[in-house]
Each structure stands twice: as C-alpha cells, then as structure tokens.
Amino acid sequence: MSIYKYSALSHGGAKINGALMADDYKSVYNMLRTKKYHPLVIEKARLSEKKVALEDMLMFFFHVDMQLKCRIRIDKALASFLELHGNKALKASLANILNSLKNGSSLGIAFEKCVGIFDKTVITLLKSAEQTGNLSEIIKNILKYLKLQSNWKNHIKRALMYPIFLLLLATLILVFSIYLLAPLVVSLLRDYGQNDIPFMTTFVIDILPKLSEILVFSLVLLLAASTPLLLSRNGREKMKGYLLKIPKIGDIATKISLWQFCKILHIALDAKLAFMEALDLAIASAQFQSIREELQLAKQYLANGYSVGESFSRIKLVSGEVLSALLVGEESGNLSASFCHVSDAQYDEIFFAIKSLGQQLSIGLTLFTGVILAIILSGLLLPIYGYVEGAGA
Hints:
This protein is mainly alpha-helical. It is built from 15 helices and three strands. Helices cover 76% and strands 6% of the residues. β1 (2-9) and β2 (15-22) form a beta hairpin. α3 runs antiparallel to α4 (88-102) and α8 (199-231) packs across α9 (233-244). The longest helix is centred in the C-terminal third of the chain and has 58 residues, at 335-392.
C-alpha cells in the first residue's frame, strides 16, 4: 500500500484536498467515488527522509501503544494511524513499512527502510522485540523515553524564554535610544546654546553605536566562519566539542548525553538484548564524540575481563553516586534496574541544572538591561533636565 494525495469536488461543489492509503490509483478513484466525490487530481505521495518532529513521534508511539494494549496487531495499528493523522513524511514512511510487512518482511527490516525517520536506536529495539516477542513492552519503553526527552526540551525552552525576552528588550532600548532619541537630545541641547556636549552624551551618541556595530559585525563574522563547519560531519563534531567546553552549558549537555546513554541501556536490557549489544546501542546514541570515546574505553575494559563497576570507575564521566548504583546492580544481578535508577537520578539533575542556568541568565541579563538603561538615562535625559532647569533659573 502507498499514500495517495488527491484533490476532489464534493457533492455540493466544494474543493477538498486530502490523502488516502491504497494499492493503486484505481482504488483511490473508487474510494472517492464511493464518498460521492468527483476526483480532480490523484498522485502518489513521495517518500520523505525529512526528520519528523518529536511531537509527531510521540503521537505515533502513543497511538501504537494504545492499540497494542487493546490486542490489535501492529499492522492494523499502523494502518489506523495513517487514517487519523496528517504528517506527510511520517505517513509516507509508514505506508512503505506496511507495504513491506504485507510482502513478508519482518518488523525490524520494514522499519530499517525508513532510517531517515526512525533512528538506529528505535529500529534495533524493534528488532529485539521480534526476537523476544515482547513488542508491547518495548513500545511502552520507547514512548516513555520520548516523553522524558520532550519534557527536558520543553523545560529548556521555558528556562530560556525570560532571558531571551530581556535580551530583546535591551536591544530595542539600545536601538531606540541611539537612532531615535539621541539625535533629538543633541538638537535640544544645541537649541539651548550648548555646543559642548557632555562626555556621557557623547558616549551614547558616538561610542555606543560603534561598539554595537563592532559586536554585530563580530557575530556575523563568527556565523559566517562557523557555517562551513556546520555543513560537514567533522565540523559539526568539532562544534559540539566546543559546546562541551562552555561553562554550565557544557555541563548540562554532558548530563543529557549520559542520561540518554543510561536510559537506552536500561530499555535495551529490558528488551533482553545481550549486555555488549545493548552497550553498543547506548554508546551510539551519545551525541558527542568525546563522550562516545570515554564510553568506548569503558567497553574495552569490559572486553578485557573487568567487571561493570571496575570498567566505569576508570572513566572520568561517571560520578561516585552513579558508580555506587552500578556496583549494587552488578552484585544483585539486576543491571537493568540500576541503569534505570541512574537515569532517573540524572534526569532530576538535568532539570535542576537547567533551572539554575535559567535563573543565572535572567539575573545577568536583568543587570545588563539595567546598566544599559542607566547609561542611556545619564547620557541623554539628565543633560536635558540640567540645562532646562538652568535656563529656568
């Protein structure tokens, strides 16, 4: 089956655009005629490799999770999702998956054909679900992982909203004062016969605009220099490495990467994957090369016969609390529960770190906005007040 887009006229003459899943053009035509539509255009939707928004992925896995809990087959769950939701890239890929399942492909192989939509982690977990017959549990764990990922991303947006507002406010005040208010102040001062402009007024009128232009030029130059790096894979890895070196931000990025590693390892072990296979999957999910290299080092120690606790104790990333949890899990034979506990603890740390960063940025930018406003007031408004008061006396 494939997705077909159509344009048709309803019985009342209204133009309707939509999409249907069918085997061929004739089937789409017959379906439209059954609805008493007059088809104008029918065309096959192209498969897309565009990334799908996290919200759409959440909606998809929530739908499949509910369907599987109702003991509906996975192919029926996918087909019902196609009828209810409208993301074109996701629908076209799911139609391709359904077609592969219809032709006898396994679930993992069918999803593997849409690697641009579903990442390697999801595909590997789905393959493991086929081997263990625990598809419903794996889908539920993937859904939980995506929900947690969505939560901290939304938390970052909320934490940065007020600092961004303050930065925009400071910029607007600066632009208004320099380009609109300053010329009026100079004109008023000269009208009062004052040709010697005070230093603070000169600073606001002449020096502050130049400093602003230098700052804007520097940012544009930095953006232009970083664009070639962002276009290449090695360049993006370098930029991510620089990100880790930024105080506070690098710490949060590291915590998020380690949380993803532990959470995926927990899900993979719950899916009954062998530990080394689960470890490979979790390491591949790390977003930063330096972190992947550290985790690969722990894997090498494991391969050389060291225990899990010993292996992770030899890398810099793991804190004492995390190491203690891993040692307990290893002794009890329940590493999956240990990695679940560790990921939950790291998740709380991520929220606290994001909240702390948002507060610090808010305080810093509030002070910055206040300083800008104070400079402008002292440079533009106080001289006018002084000369008007002197003239009145």
